[in-house]
Design brief:
By secondary structure, the chain is α+β, with helices and mostly antiparallel strands. The protein folds into three domains: about 90 residues, Ribosomal Protein S5, domain 2, CATH 3.30.230; about 40 residues, no CATH class; about 140 residues, Butyryl-CoA Dehydrogenase, subunit A, domain 3, CATH 1.20.140. It is built from eight helices and six strands; from the N terminus they run βββαββααβααααα. The longest helix has about 70 residues.
């Protein structure tokens, strides 16, 4: 049942119901974001023996997310069970209260109203049910709820995937604009360095050969071509993972970390205001990608 070839969200809801031979089982599943798979099950006392089987069935279909399963059971003609007095527990409470009165050196006036509210005084016997029949109904309802849950997670995953593609496309556009500005960097370095040296030396005293050498050294230190190439590689891997589908959340987190690293390096190397502005735009998109990726399984 697990969807291995689709981008899926961790948020979803599904419900299912099944009935037979006068018995009815209902299942509601809700899932939200979580780093790992966290399953919480709430069921009537007479269905608790099936909780491990329920957990295993959910684990076979879902890999990540905090998932809560609420299970209900009803039987046609079922009468509300009356509470039964647990005489042994009641007697133990009386003995303890009498000892407490002796220690406090006071008389023992038992308050039946207070005594009746103590834990364990009354119990409600759960109805006995046939295991195989109820398990079949339970699994039928659970499978229906899982199908709805996975369908909702898949639909939201498709929406998120489209948004992620658009944002990676925006980043790629900014990188193209940065790449177009790179050839101008060396000329800008040359002009700035010439202006600074000219301000310190007499006119005509500039060593053009030495100046050209310094420009080359500074340009090499501030060259961002490699960072742009690596960033584009990360973009391509990101889109490739989207195309491949499956459980991509952890891989996306790694790629986004590398994207942010390249953006910081480009910003630290460059002194061109236009490039720095583009890097700021890129980092904002990377952060938006990071927020969306947290919703993916």
């Amino acid at each position: 049942m697990r969807q291995n070839n689709k981008i899926t969200s961790m948020t979803g809801f599904g419900s299912g119901a099944a009935e037979g031979q006068g018995q009815q089982v209902g299942v509601e599943l809700r899932s939200v974001n979580s780093r790992y798979l966290d399953i919480q099950i709430r069921s009537p006392a007479n269905l608790q023996p099936f909780e491990q089987a329920i957990r295993e069935r959910i684990q076979a279909a879902v890999s990540r997310g905090k998932l809560s399963a609420n299970i209900s059971w009803a039987e046609e003609g079922q009468q509300t069970a009356l509470p039964q007095l647990d005489a042994e527990v009641a007697a133990a409470y009386v003995v303890q209260l009498q000892q407490l009165a002796k220690i406090a050196q006071t008389t023992t006036d038992l308050d039946l109203g207070l005594l009746s509210r103590l834990p364990g005084i009354f119990r409600i016997e759960a109805s006995e049910i046939e295991g195989e029949q109820v398990q079949a109904l339970l699994f039928a309802a659970l499978d229906q709820a899982l199908a709805e849950l996975l369908a909702m997670r898949g639909a939201e995953g498709e929406t998120l995937a489209a948004d992620l593609r658009d944002r990676v496309g925006l980043i790629e556009t900014h990188l193209e604009q940065i790449a177009e500005l790179v050839p101008n960097t060396r000329e800008q370095i040359h002009n700035r360095l010439r202006e600074k040296i000219a301000a310190l030396l007499e006119p005509g005293a500039i060593d053009e050969e030495r100046l050209a050498m310094e420009v080359v050294l500074i340009a090499e230190r501030s060259d961002i071509t490699e960072e742009i190439v690596r960033f584009r590689s990360h973009n391509a891997q990101f889109v490739e993972a989207l195309d491949k589908g499956g459980e991509v959340g952890r891989r996306f987190n790694f790629l986004l970390q590398e994207m942010n690293r390249e953006a910081n390096t480009i910003s630290s190397k460059s002194s061109d205001p236009e490039i720095i502005h583009r890097v700021v735009e890129i980092k904002e998109e990377v952060e938006r990608l990071r927020e969306q990726v947290q919703n993916l399984a």
